Amino acid sequence: MSQQPLSKALLFTILLSVVTLLVAVRSLFSDPLDQVLARIRAYEQQYPYEKVYVHTDRTTYLPGETIWMKSYLFYGASRGADSSSGAVLVDLVSPNGQKIRLDTRFQTKGGYGEGYLPLPDSMETGRYTLRAYTGWMRNFSEDWYFTKAIDIVRANDPKGATTAGNGSSIEARPDVQFLPEGGQLVAGLTSRVAFKAVSPAGVGVDVSGFVLDSRKDTIVGFQSQHLGMGTFPLIPEAGQTYQAFVKIPGTTGYTSYTMPAPQPAGYLVQVDNLSNKDNIRVFVSNSMPPVAATPESGSAAAMLTVLAQVNGQPILALRGPASRKQFVVQIPRAKCPEGIVQITLLDPAGKPVSERLVYSAQDELINLAVTPATPVAGPRQRVDLTVTATNAAGKPVMADLSLAVTDLAQQPKRKPFAASLPSYLLLTSDLTGYVEQPGYYFDQTNKDRLANLDLLLMTQGWRRITWDKVLVDSLPPTRYPFDPGLTVSGTVYRGTSKNPAPGIPLTIMVHRKDSTQDLYSLSADEKGRFFLSNANLIDTATVFVQAQKTNGSRNFTITIDKLVTPQIRVVRPPLVPSDIAYAELAEFLKRQSEYAAIEAQIRRNREVQLQTVVVKAKRVDPYATQRGIFSNADVSLKVDEMNSAGALTIFDILRSRVAGVQVSGGGLEPTVQIRGAANFSGVIEPMFMIDGMAVDKSAISSIMPSDVAYIDVIKGASAALLGSRGAGGGINVIMKRGGETNDYVNKVVPGVRVEKMVGFAPKRTFYAPRYDKPTPEEKVRPDYRATLLWAPRIQTDAAGKATVSFYTSDAKTSLHLVLEGATVSGQPGHAEATMKVE
């Protein structure tokens, strides 16, 4: 059914009163419109926004499996691939929406990133929410974060996922909202009222009904057109109230709902986005008393303004006299890029008084296709795929794509018109709440998709531009900067006070698990703050920060900022009884259980029954990670109460107690020399380290002897591993470890701070066997992979083509191929295909 048209009488009246409107932009800054445009520009400059989308290989997993992901990052105003932020943060939120169960970080380059999230074997069944965002996006509402439903099903508890729903009874009263077009009902003005009926489970319900006024007269009947949404005309009368009576399928009788009360006077906009192929027509009505012209208005007569924006960018402003009770303006479609158009009516003072969202369809999506060389393949056979990308005109385009190939028998039946990159980037990322079947509006085989999309935008809230935040005299500062990677930040204070220490020189070392390290020098700013942008943090890294003035003073306290986790506020997709077809999951669970049993049998077959033996092994060194590559020091002194008695510094312990180490001079920083080191031309002091990380000698002198476990001396051939800085050998101070987590003893040392920080997930390659040259294990190992191929970085060439291949598994089944991605300029695309394995 198509969109409810304007009544013929109203259309005739409005068309008779069409006036020639002025294209705004007046030169006088006193014009209210100029002030509105200036504030929009200021808001966009201070708060540019990003959008994140994450493609996953599947949406349903077993505990112990891995979620494979690719992130797409876009600049909101232009939709181009965004390289401002170099990190995408990903959380997996528990089914009850109250706890982050897992998290990871992707390193992005040019707007694209890839990563994974291993699921522990202990994960319980339920519907989880995967959410993704950047550090910059933490300045704004969590409603802007990308979210996606992820179902985890245990083989012994498949139906436990129903606990992930909202807990409402399906027989409970549905929610029916009545939403006047433009935002309000005005007495005496013809309006269109949109409505939306949603079940307690969160999905649309087809309804019918009628409206009564306070005299109990029937005003109009109505019936939903698409997913519980529809419209009907209404001319409200002053002093009347209106009640809607709704018939719910499967129930008897009608349920009553109170409709919004009409305003005695006001403004209205109605939009025709369907009948004219060249223009979007905006009908403006008002019943306000005449407004006198003022010098401040910068106009001979008071004017109403129709302002159109796309992606937060003003594209057109058209005006008409406020004295006209009805007029129409036309917005050329050619001026509106693909996406949601926000149409706002401004009163003569520049205040927003009515608003409507419409969609501009401009054929800016790219056409993607993934074609197997043969539609049918055999088990363990190579399949070659050709990927093509073209624009709406059929010309090839270069795009960055991701492709997943999965076994259809090992996934629940895919819900119709599921979310995709185009539906997210162009539609749902700019709307609040849950959008059901978003892919429907981008499938051109649906003839009524644009009419029903117009319905959706009459009933779904907007959020990208909220006028109460834009039309202010001053904008609050942002808390988080754009981060090209992961930032190490903190504050330096004087002594133990809370007084910042500005301009203090800092040395920062990042030490990674693979024993590689980076050294940086910088200074605190005027507020004592320091920022190390784009720190190369991989996995869990140890960060060492040292503050020292040029005169050697180290009387400072250093704090390192923690990565602030945003509030957990997610819009979880609804879960209705038929949402997950557990009967169709039976093959998946059965196959995976058999697969696990065969794997266990293979392991048992490899076992060898041994005679009684005595196993000899070296005792594990609890300080091995702190010693790193210097696990066998030339000299290692264990610090105890005897040799540290009376010692004020580490140097006091070294003096006369460690063979080959000469300590001369007094004070906190005496001269240290290792005999036998390459220091024939004079004293070359050793390289000083704390737990394998290089530090200044002053940092060593600040350590309490009671906090030290060992002092290791490195010289000779071992010192060559230190490079040029180890010409004088090395001294590695091993700190004591304690507590159940074996963390470093975290005592405050003046001028020094050491902390562990979680960085980017280390790179990991998706495993896919190659049966042209199988390994001995692959020859006997059964193969029932649920995901057969995950290719996150497919790039089409100038001819718009790319090729990729994979090997099928042992299963005779149907395969599902999902391809999506975008061009650098932000034109998205999505394609799906299937093939048989027999």
Automatic annotation (TrEMBL):
The keyword Signal applies. This is TonB-dependent receptor plug domain-containing protein. Keywords: Cell outer membrane, Membrane, Receptor, Signal, Transmembrane, Transmembrane beta strand, Transport. Belongs to the TonB-dependent receptor family. It comes from Fibrella forsythiae. Pfam families: MG2 (PF01835), Plug (PF07715). Residues 51-140 form the Macroglobulin domain. Residues 637-729 form the TonB-dependent receptor plug domain. The keyword Transmembrane applies. PANTHER family: HEMOGLOBIN AND HEMOGLOBIN-HAPTOGLOBIN-BINDING PROTEIN 1-RELATED, TONB-DEPENDENT OUTER MEMBRANE RECEPTOR. It is found in: Cell outer membrane. Transmembrane segments: none annotated.
